[in-house]
Amino acid sequence: MRKSFTAFVLWMTLVVSPSYADQLTDLIAGDTESQTTPGADKVIDVNSSAQDDKKIQRRLQKIFSEMDNLENIKILTSSGIVTLQGEVNSAPAEKKAIQLSQQVEGVVEVESELVITHDLKERLETTWQKLAKAAKALITGFPVFLLAIIAFTLTVIFGRWLSHRQSLYRRIAPNYFIASLLGQITRLLFILLGLVIALSLLDLTALLGSILGAAGIIGLAVGFAVRDTVENYIASILLSLRNPFEVNDLVNIDGNEGNVVRLTTRATILLSPDGNHIRIPNSIVFKAVIINYTRNAERRFQFDAGIDADQDLQIAQSLALQTLGSIEGVLAEPKPMVIIEELGNSSIVLRIYAWTDQDKFDFLKVRSETIRQIKLAFDQANIVMPEPIYQIKIGNETGIDLKQKDNADQERVYPAHKQPRIITHATIDISTDNTIEKKVVEEHEHGDTENLLGKNASQE
User: Fold this and answer.
1) What is the value of pTM for the model shown?
2) CATH code for the domain defined by 37-118
3) Where is the signal peptide (predicted)?
4) Which of 49, 246, 399, 410 has most Cβ atoms within 10 angstroms of its Cβ?
C-alpha cells in the first residue's frame, strides 16, 4: 500500500510540474551543468542604485520581447535581484529566461516565480509552429537530400559493376576464390565511399565517425559470436592459396580417408571408399596432418609373412624376391625388398615391401595379388607357414580320453558328397578401379556448389 501511494505521488508530481520532471531527468543523466550559473563568479557592486535596477529591467524586457514564449514575462528588479513572474509554456523556456537574466550586467540573483502553463491551445500552437518549421527545413533541404541519395546509389551501382569484372581481378590473383574476395572488398570500399559522399553533401561528416565506431563495436561482438565461422573462412582462404590437394585426390585428413570432392568457404568435402560424404571444417583441415596418396603415382605397400623357424631364411627371402619380380603391377624400380622383421617363439616374420604405379594399376588389387602369389610360391617350395600352437591341460576327473597327436596328422577324409572341388584359377584383374573417381566427376557435372580448388593455384 505504501509503495502504491509513493508511486502515485511521484506520478502526480511529474504531471503537475514538468520542471520537476526535468530536474529528475538531469539528476538521473548526471547533468550538473545547470547548477553552475553564469553569474556565480560575478562581484557584487556596492554602488547599486534604483537607476541601475531600471536599466536591468528595461534591458531584460527588450531581450524577452524578441524571444519566442518569453514576451509575457513580468520583470521585477530590486537591488540587483531580479524576480521573474508570469507563465511560460515549457521548462526549457523557463531555464532560458533565468540564464539570460543572469548574463545581464549588475544582476546579483535571479528568483523564478514562473509557472509552466498547460493551456491546450497554446501547446497546440507551439507544436504546430515546430512542425511547420521542421517541414519547411525538410522542403528546403530536400534537393540536397535527393542529391545525396543519388550520389550514394550511383557509387554503389558502379562498385557492384566493378566487383563483377572477374577478369580484372584474375590478372591480379589467378586463384578464383581470391579474385572473388577482391571483388567483394572493392564493392565494400565503394559503399563506404558513397556513404562519405552522401554525408558530406548533407554536412553530416561528424556522423560518419559515430557510424564507424558503432560498426566496429558491432563487428567485434559478431566476431566473438561467429568465431568458428570466421576461422573456417580464413582457413579456406589459406587453403585455396596453396592447395594441399586437388579434386579426386585420395587423402587422409585427421583419420578420415576419401577422395576430395570440393573445398568450400566453410569445409572440405570427401567421398569415402564406401561412397559416404565426409565434411571436415576447414579450420581442422588447415591444422591437421594431411596424407595425400595421389600426389605421387608410385606408391609402396607392405605385408608380413610368417615361416617356420626351421626353414632356411635366405632361400625364403630369395624366393619371395623372385616371385615379386614376376607379378604384374609390381615395379622393378624402385626395387622390392624382403627383410626379417621379427624372431618369434615358433616362427620368423618376413616383411615384404613392393612398389606399384597407381596410374596404371589398382593399389589394393596389386597388394592382394602379391600376397596370393607369395603364399602360392611358399606352398610349392614346401616352406611351412606355421599355425599358432596352444597347450591345453585337462584333469583326469573329466574322464576324457585324449588321443595321440598322430591322429591330428592323419589325412582328413571327406564324405563323397562333400569332397572339395579344385577350381581353376582365373585371371586376376589388377586394373585401376575408378568407381569413386567417376562419382566425384558426376557430382561436379550435375552440381553448382562452389569449389575453391583451382589448377592455377600453387601446390604444396
Assistant:
1) 0.52
2) 3.30.1340.30
3) 1-21
4) 246
The arrangement of secondary structure in 245-294+442-459, i.e. its CATH architecture, is: Roll (2.30)
- Cα(173)–Cα(195) distance, integer angstroms: 28
For the chain, domain boundaries:
1-29, 37-118, 125-225, 245-294+442-459, 298-388
3-state SS record for the chain: CHHHHHHHHHHHHHHHCHHHHHHHHHHHHCCCHHHCCCCCCCCCCCCCCHHHHHHHHHHHHHHHHCCCCCCCCEEEEECCEEEEEEEECCHHHHHHHHHHHHHCCCCCEEEEEEEECCCHHHHHHHHHHHHHHHHHHHHHHHHHHHHHHHHHHHHHHHHHHHHCCHHHHHHHCCCHHHHHHHHHHHHHHHHHHHHHHHHHHCCCHHHHHHHHHHHHHHHHHHHHHCHHHHHHHHHHHHHHHEECCCCCCEEEECCEEEEEEEECCCEEEEECCCCCEEEEEHHHHHHCCEEECCCCCEEEEEEEEEEECCCCHHHHHHHHHHHHHCCCCECCCCCCEEEEEEECCCEEEEEEEEEEECCCECHHHHHHHHHHHHHHHHHHCCCCCCCCCCCCCCCHHHCCCCCCCHHHHCCCCCCHHHCCCCCCCCCCCCECCCHHHHHHHHHHHHCCCCCCCCCCCEEC
Q: What Å distances lie between residue 136 and 69, 376, 430, CA to CA? A: 21, 103, 88
Note the CATH architecture for domain 298-388.
2-Layer Sandwich (3.30)
Q: What is the pLDDT of residues 276-308, one digit of tens each?
A: 999 999 989 998 999 999 888 899 999 999 888
